[in-house]
Amino acid sequence: MKHALLGASVLMASSANAEPLIIDNGRLFIQARINGVATEALLDSGAESSLFDPKLAAEAHFGAGEKVMMKGSGGEQAVEIVSNVRIEALGRTIPAAEVVVMDMTDLSARLIKRPTRAIVGREVFDAGPIRIDLARSDVEALEAGSVPLGVKLPLTEHGGIEAVPVRIGKTEAQAVVDFGNGTGVMIGKELAEKMNLKVVGKMKGGGIGGEIERDVVRLPSLTLAGKTFRNVEASVDATSSRAELNIGTPILKHFVVTADFKGRSAWFAPVKGAGH
């Protein structure tokens, strides 16, 4: 666990209703129950659907589903779409979710780097506002209509995932708020080429479908909710990225973030002493 990486005082105090986060390699894990079966789950605001390993699906008595090929950033992978799965997380219940069942062995070992058999995504965020405080390693489901501290930004849907406005240098862009991304910033190939960003290196990446190698460019500056980060390295997403930018926990750890998917807004309260 890499809590020291995220340590700092913040503008917003945690409440007594907050639940602990496990933070490992920049990724966030919570406790959940799937059809009543307790499990640790990766919390992923960038996941259009929740995903579960076949062994957990069997243990939780999932019904029969539809077998399809899912296209991911690393290629295609055989999966099963299953309906009427009950997800309980952060004190909320999603009684009949449509989820993805897939072999998560490679994803766990190669990308997440922690044994993982559950990823809870959009369904949990759609159920109501969620405050995520990386500095304090906790998370809390808030009541609808709560007004958090911080800079309020509009959420815009891009292919089933949510993005906020940012600025790269003087260029306005949309960036996916992706708590499932523990590795940093990704930029779409079209935007990188439009901005004439030079390749400064290579890095391995890729999620569903296997590993790929991506070019790395350097953003002169990235401004989110009034906070500017300079000389930010970003891997180039040559696939259909759905949004121009993807920002993960290395950027999001500098804020207490409250995401309200239903209310189409997110709030960013800066962590004192963090940022560039």
TrEMBL record:
<keyword id="KW-0378">Hydrolase</keyword>
<dbReference type="Pfam" id="PF13650">
    <property type="entry name" value="Asp_protease_2"/>
</dbReference>
<feature type="domain" description="Peptidase A2">
    <location>
        <begin position="39"/>
        <end position="124"/>
    </location>
</feature>
<dbReference type="InterPro" id="IPR021109">
    <property type="entry name" value="Peptidase_aspartic_dom_sf"/>
</dbReference>
<keyword id="KW-0732">Signal</keyword>
<feature type="signal peptide">
    <location>
        <begin position="1"/>
        <end position="18"/>
    </location>
</feature>
<protein>
    <submittedName>
        <fullName>Retropepsin-like domain-containing protein</fullName>
    </submittedName>
</protein>
<dbReference type="InterPro" id="IPR001995">
    <property type="entry name" value="Peptidase_A2_cat"/>
</dbReference>
